[in-house]
Predict the 3D structure of the following.
Amino acid sequence: VQLVESGGGMVQPGGSLRLSCAASGFTFSMYDMSWVRQAPGKGPEWVSRINTGGSGSYYADSVKGRFTISRDNAKNTLYLQMNSLKSEDTAVYYCRARNYDYDYWGQGTQVTVSS
């Protein structure tokens, strides 16, 4: 099983980034997928979740209206479009695959928002 995040980097406040998470080794379409972030010195914070078919998506209040989660089950890939980024969005972003039996995490990608 692998979850490999990419797309992180450094961006100025107000900028945008698009994160990707490439999944392999399991049936991607049968798992709810989430993004979770961890800022320096803080605990993990759930960011967003999308259901197996992509018809339902949910967001933390802190990112609602700025971030959009999506998935492409044909490509086994999860995305997070992040717009209007703020300094408080600085964190390592992890993708997570979960169903009733299993819970998989990626290694994370760093997002730094700074002027």
